[in-house]
Amino acid sequence: MTAKEQVWRHVLAESRERGRAEFRQKDVAGELGLSVSTVHAALEVPRRAGAVEVWGRGFRLVDWRKLLTVWAVFRNLEKDVVWEARLRYPADRVEGDMVPQARFSGASAFKFRYGYAPADYDEVLVYLEEEHLPELEGRFRVHIRPAGETLLRVLRPDPRLPRRVPPEQVYVDLWQSHPWWTAEFLRYLEEELGKERAGR
């Protein structure tokens, strides 16, 4: 994931979790370990889209949905895929057999966060450091089938990804996935994000 996407994730998460709307570029750079110029560059597209207002050395998030959409469009999920295979059993069993170091995204993350799934799904997305990939491969290799029931996709995490994948990142990962059921998850996830912000 690019540095500018990490800035967008940070701004969205801070806004949702802490009600933070105004930011100083220098502070965001320090919090993420990035240069101020990187943070400044990350604001250009959201500014043109009307998602943020930028002045001097600061900026304000004015439309979180627009920023989320900007990120969803720019996200390149395929670039982060390090391993994938179709497995012979359903998604809930893949989730249950998952290695403990994995961090769920996509439909699985939605289900575990909100306690329900708005549609059946046949794809499991996880983030996993490559050092743990041999353990995952060893666990699932014998269950690989060319026409298997569930697609397991393993993504490379960025160094700043929290242990629990933020729902905004779950949203953009779903946006970049293509099964028919993703539209239902996106609709419900946007509703859940709105509720979280309204009830903060």
Overall number of domains: 2
User: Which fold name fills CATH's third level, the topology of the largest domain?
Assistant: Beta Polymerase, domain 2
Q: Rg to the nearest angstrom?
A: 18 Å
The geometry reads as globular
Count helical runs: 11
First-residue to last-residue Cα separation: 28 Å
Quote the average pLDDT.
97
Quickly give the structural class: alpha+beta
Strands of the widest sheet, in order across it, are 4-7-6-5
Task: Please outline the major beta sheet.
Answer: 4 strands, mixed
Q: Beta-strand level of the residues, as a percent range?
A: 15-25%
List low-confidence stretches: none
Fraction of residues in helices?
40-55%
Q: What's the level 1 CATH class of the largest domain?
A: Alpha Beta
Structure, explained:
The chain is α+β, with helices and mostly antiparallel strands and 200 residues long. The protein folds into 2 domains: 3-74, Winged helix-like DNA-binding domain superfamily/Winged helix DNA-binding domain (Arc Repressor Mutant, subunit A, Orthogonal Bundle), CATH 1.10.10; 77-198, Beta Polymerase, domain 2, CATH 3.30.460. It contains 11 helices and 7 strands. The chain has a 4-stranded mixed β-sheet with strand order 4-7-6-5. Helix 2 crosses helix 3 (36-42). The chain is globular and about 55 Å long. The mean pLDDT is 97.
